[in-house]
Amino acid sequence: MAVIRTRFAPSPTGFMHIGNLRTALYEYLIARSKGGQFILRIEDTDQGRYVEGAMDAVLETLRMTGITYDEGPGVGGDYGPYIQSERKDIYLEYAKQLVQRGAAYYCFCSKERLDALRTSEGVAFNYDRHCLGLSQDEIEKNLAEGKPYVIRQLVPREGKTTFSDVVYGDITVDNDTLDDQILIKSDGLPTYNFANVIDDHLMKITHVVRGNEYLSSTPKYNILYQAFGWEIPIYIHLPSIMKDAHTKLSKRNGDASFQDLIQKGYLPEAILNYIALLGWSPGGTREFFTLKELEENFTIEGLNKSPSIFDIEKLRWMNAEYIRNSTPEQFRQLAQPYVEQALGENDLDIGKICALIQQRTEVLTEIPDKIAFFKELPEYDTAIYCHKKMKTDQTNSLENLRKVLQYFTDNESTLRADWTSARLYEALCALAEQNGVKNSQILWPVRTALSGKEVSPGGATEIAEILGYDETMRRLAVGIKKLETEGTVENGSQQ
After folding, report:
1. 117, 429, 432, 457: which could join 442 in a potential S-S bond, CB 3.0 to 4.6 Å?
2. Nearest to 21 by CA among 8, 34, 33, 12
3. Does residue 243 carry a catalytic annotation?
């Protein structure tokens, strides 16, 4: 059996969108699961849509996700070059072979004529083969004069073309519905539809994996393979990824690319794991896979025909699980840039802050907002002291904060010597018992005074440990003053 060879062939027209990344992943997994080879090829023949830096974005995406290629730009291989614009002469040579075989022809029609034809025929435009009947003398004369031309595929008008797809089965189309597509454009570069056939053959690609939007073009690919007498590869067309039941996920619609998701705080491992399940079923209920585990478990038979909906909330949940299951060291490394963004240079224990927020973080970009209060106590409304479940209101919060402040003052030396969350929790619970109140009636006002937030990562004593004795005392005093001057005697809002 021949070695399985797959290729990922993106066009450098922007950042890597989710559909593209899934295609790359599946091609990689098909190759790796069978001990095959995975090739990267850059299809940059559409120079009008070329975006500077887009190829670098592709390479960076593959690097970040761990998708390594055996041949391609920067790696080399036996079938290069792997950038199509560097293979220009190859395509023209093969196009001329098709002309000689009667499977293609020169077309010298002007843009004006084609526009007029397109207007008269409407949306379903098919070239009228105006140039098919040109004599050899006319063709040579036009070429000698330097008249602009394209080379078109001569598609049979009679009969049917059938091709097989792993996902969609056998598909048959009437040849008279197919257009004489352009193979070589007027700038001398090939169209995507022609270049990918030539390159797939020359690079010995055995499995062609792409989105199902290319199903309609596949008959023309097969006709090209047949015209050359080449073996047709195995086709695997993937179902669409949808943003909802009616709309396809698309970068043209502003939907998130891989880079967008990274910037929003998602982890590469989580993104890759999630998109692996958008069109492939591993069987059973397992949802979490490393890339290595995907290589070991992936099967072509598990690919689905039905479209998948990209559920950002499901991705968010999966990302949170990846964060929570990271080691403390791993999470600190991930969180460090966001912690620094929020806190700048400070004397706070970053390790303790990271430990506090790791189990409470779903995406990394949440971190600055979660922890900013450690650097500076925000302005807040005293209504947040009122919590029905905690049995607190502004009146008893003021009373209990005064008791806590006094207790901390009276026991300063002892507390400074053991300023830990566990010791503080023990002390505050004892204070609550002494005063005949619930623990929550002490702990909630303290947490509120220290954070200035309705919701905070960690409780009163965890926050206090990180802030230290002096800053804790300062914030308690601020809370007391705010309640004395701004608070009202009421049972306030229900939290």
Report:
1. 432
2. 8
3. no
